Amino acid sequence: MPSRPEQVVRLLQNRAAPALAYGCGRSYGDVALNPNGLLVDCRNLDRFIAFDPATGVLRCEAGVQLADILAFLCRPEADGDGWFLPVTPGTRFVTIGGAIANDVHGKNHHCSGTFGRHVLSLELARSDGSVSTCSLHENASLFAATIGGLGLTGVILSASIQLRRVEGLAVEAENIRFGSLDEFWDLSSSSDSSWEYTAAWVDCVAAGKDLGRGIFSRARHVSGVGVDPPRRKPRLRWPVTPPLSLVTRHSVRGFNALYWHRAGSNDRIRRICSYEPILYPLDSVDLWNRLYGPRGFFQFQCVVPRAVAREVVAALLRIVVASGEGSMLAVLKMFGAIPSPGLLSFPMEGLTLSLDFPNRGALTQRLFNQLEQIVAEASGRLYPAKDCLMARASFVRGYSRLNEFIPLIDPGFSSAFARRVGIAQPHGA
Amino acid sequence: MPKAPTLHRVAIFGANSDIAFAVARRLAETGAELVLIGRDLDALQTAAGDLKIRGAQATQIIQANFTETGDLAAIAAGAWGALGSLDVALVSFGTMPRQIAAEADNRVAEQALIVNFVSPVLLCNALAQKFEAQGYGTIAVITSVAGDRGRKSNFIYGAAKGGLQRYLEGLRHRLFAMNIRVLDIRPGFVATKLTAEMQQGGLLWASPDRVAKDIVAALKAGRPILYTPWFWRFVMMGVRNMPAPLFNRTKL
Q1: What ipTM was estimated for this complex?
Q2: Coil, helix or strand for A253?
Q3: Distance between alpha carbon A412 and the CA centroid of its chain, in Å?
Q4: pTM to 2 decimal places
């Protein structure tokens, strides 16, 4: 676990097996795993290097977590404008390195694109001992490969990020119930121009005319209200893994019904609050994944192009509802057209659907295959950061720039994901 | 004079130590003014940059070598002058020699004793005079649970730390009437550069940040002795009170 960049370079030079960087391990699948290889835990590379409050450019080591950045950006007395993260995923407990390597996206993708779009430059350590500065103007192809590159191009040592100016740290938020996918589509289309953060929770057990009902949430920054800095660690932690999954057909049905009705008979509920519950709902309980018991869960996150999105998502939901397998967590969001500099960037203009499924072995695998098939045929793709089951064919079909990416993979690096989809050599062979 | 100690102006002797840096970070977030004293100037500068961004109102750097015992009074004076005065002086430098090497070679043993005992004592001597003249403040020194009892696996380091504990006890006694606190920080196993050669996993091992949290809390509360994490107080009670015939048969 190196704490200085020089140590990382040495580790790579002296490695006996293919290497991979590791951050907070929040990816759901195997993108950050490297069994029988060298895993470089970068969380001690966590220093801030420089911050210019006039331009909002932050330079820091790659092990800095988004939570740390928020802690210094968000002072409680700050009720006026200030700097904020340009893009944030659903948890703040991720490293900058991880955010870049997965080219993460957030609820504001339609306004701000992916995280990689806001990276001005990065320092990359490769297995040949070199440390390269990469940006749009310098080592540009390596830059494009590293953003969304799942750690396969080297270890990111530090990066320069352009933060975003916002009018205030507090947000005004609205939750709007909708009864069908068509209603969602209308809501999303009309909200995206004036609301920065939008996403919807979808009930994935509601069938028939209720198919695709859910709660649309939208939020935007407001000034005039101070906000407490977010906690550094979640306040609660799910203490033990229950012997069986707590997520069952019945518990999901019950939860979803309650949650849907909670949105109340008033269709709209508006409030002003901290950004924390809007952007980081899952961060309040650490180890929430234990809910699923020892067998855990799989997430299926796909994106389908805008042109076919409505029909495809309806088809996917119908299959999920019919299987009865879904869980409480199902999120639907419209991605915008803003491109990412990353070669393997996941988002595209269209709809993204994320579904969690308790792991029921072969049953879950078959369901995933079905869903994957539909997505592939619709020219969509799956998100590696969430994936455990994607077939090589889907990956190749979904990521059209894979051919440009493969030559830029550092031969000294590998991951379980890369081996599974066949873009890296299995080592030990 | 405030009843509860303020932690605004803090000098950290040995600021490149992992525990000290973690403490510095927590203090920076409260807007403290910090003086960082250590040997590696580059590391101090990187650290200062990080602390400034995290919220430290001021960061001063002093390069110093704590093995030069003759310089210690000047180092203390320099640290004191950097911010005008100090609320807290944290002494956190040290090295852990290999026990076997220290037994075999007196030079290794001597170095260990100087860095871990002689130097902190002389530094505290100089600091105590300054705090006494000022009339308030806290002197905090990182010793170790190893100082609680001599054990064959680590007794040269343990003796140095034990001696330091004894010194702090006396200093605390001397400064008692003046409301100057002396905090003896006794960490157990902490995953840092110092212990990098040991197996750092397991229930007993703590992170530097966890220890730093305890230290800041103890500084605020004005406590005399801190075992961190808390359970070491009870572990060492057991270790200290084990009868010698039994203890001497263990491998501790």
Answers
A1: 0.84
A2: helix
A3: 26
A4: 0.90
